[in-house]
Amino acid sequence: MAINTQTETFRGYGKLGTMNAQTAVECRFGQEVGTVLSVHTSAVLTGAEAGNGEVRYFGKAHFSLVYEDAEKRVCRAEKGVEFTASAKNEACFPALTARAALSVENVSVRREGASVYVAALLGADITFFGEQNFDYLAGGDLIMRREPSDVITAHLCGGAAETEDEFETEFIGDILQHAETVNVTDIVCETGLLNIEGEINLCVLALKGENALVSFERLVPFRIEIPCDEASSCCGAEARVSVLNVSIHADTDEERGKCKLRAEFTLSAEGCVYEEVTVDTVADAFSPQSEVSLLFTETACGGAGETKCLTERISGKCALSSPVDFSDVFQAVTLQRAEANLVRADDGTRIEGVAMATLLVLGADGAHRGIEMSLPFSVAAQAEHCNVSVLVCGMSARQKQEGEIEAEATLKITVYEKRLVTAKFVTSAEEGAALPVNDSAVSVYIPRAGDGLWELSKSLKKSPEEVSASNPDVEFPVKEGQRVIVYRKKTING
Fold this sequence. Notes:
Blueprint: E1 5-29, E2 35-51, E3 54-68, E4 74-88, E5 97-112, E6 115-140, E7 143-170, E8 174-190, E9 193-208, E10 212-227, E11 236-253, E12 258-286, E13 290-317, E14 319-320, E15 329-345, E16 348-362, E17 368-380, E18 386-398, E19 406-434, E20 442-445, H1 453-460, H2 464-470, E21 484-487
Helix pairs in contact: 1-2
């Protein structure tokens, strides 16, 4: 008689994979642009969709230049460019949901004839989600060892919010350039809600008086609540927040020599709530009557863990894109940013990277120059399998020795823990040859030391309950020299 087995199907939705892509976007400015002092590029995603073997994503890049014209006047120029790009991956198909986060990895400026070209290399961090289904052995005539398997399911959510801040500065004549960096500091689930908190570092470069430059920054806190029916306090989550639009209004008070600024931000948030589900699976099985061939499968599900924050003050000698000397007057430090990675070293895990900014100086000839400076850093971190984001604020520069710049900065570091849950279980069983029949009423076995109850039951082709009942004094795992007795019911023909 064939062995009867029962299987069930788990149906869920989860993170299926990630990938990275790059695309180059270029913008042309006219002959009015003279010496480029500062260039800032930001990118906003407008959409992403999965196709056959690829993910297509769309967006708009915004280019902002501060430059000095032929009369040595400091001016500004802005332009936007729409772009479309794709990332190839054979695992993609149209039924998947793709999400992408954009970053500006490199910006370069070149002059061709009367035109100035600004090229930006944009990175795309892409995650795709889809149906996560598998079959598993659930019951039947076999003797089974059951073990619960944890599976992480994903629930996508999103939302938008607006926030604003008002603050006073010294008197300024015109705002030349501004840049925004978002740092998510806390991601918490509660019943029906995903709560996201963080800070926006607003950096402003302004004209003060005649051809004098000044920079200042402001940390603006934000909080976004996103409805999610599946969210609860036991769920993990991840989130990305981007600035869709910024509006800065300035009211000047010449008598007091002050300026009141009001910054309004439109934010977009994409969240993913991860729920852990326990499935009653079979880790091993056998039949008392016949050989059985088991088919196993393995699952790996990604999720999110804790969010941790730390603050570090760094200082040191900077690398410079062009030389300086004591005749240069430092006017502004702007466009603070950082690149960082989690690195495993002999002394533990560290966050290593570089803090960067643009230093604007006024030379002895009355001309401005923009100098790119970078300050490396290494910070100890108790973290494994994490993503890291770093916000740079309060960066300053000074020239103690001619030709050398020492900088200081505050780093606000957020570490986002990643979770990976794996499970191996039986999906099906196939019956083999019949086992030989043992006619003995009683058998005595000497097992190997260390055998557990299940291992012994499987070798004896008896259920764990039968083995335990026949050997009430035996402790498992068995010790050296112990004996195990198996009783078999005999039928008397009369």
